[in-house]
Write a structure and sequence with these properties.
This protein is mainly alpha-helical. The chain has 2 helices and no strands. Helices cover about 65% and strands about 0% of the residues.
């Protein structure tokens, strides 16, 4: 019997974050292409919820050291 692969919390959170990015892109496309204002507003509401949840996952990952944001070097400073 094959063994099931175990995923870490970091792996799961990374997968959710990637999926959230794709979902957000899909909602944005739907918003931009909707002719019906009610449907457009529904997609906007879903998109806003998706962004809020994405941010929560990002914050959790960053807090746990799983997502490091690269720093931009300010070369204008001495």
């Amino acid at each position: 019997m094959p063994q099931m692969q175990q995923f870490s919390d970091k792996d799961i959170a990374s997968d959710i974050l990637s999926g959230s990015k794709l979902l957000s892109q899909g909602y944005m496309t739907a918003i931009l292409e909707s002719q019906d204002q009610n449907l457009c507003q529904t997609f906007q509401n879903y998109h806003d919820q998706c962004i809020n949840e994405h941010h929560q996952i990002f914050q959790m990952m960053q807090k746990n050291g799983w997502y490091k944001v690269p720093m931009i070097l300010d070369e204008s400073r001495p």
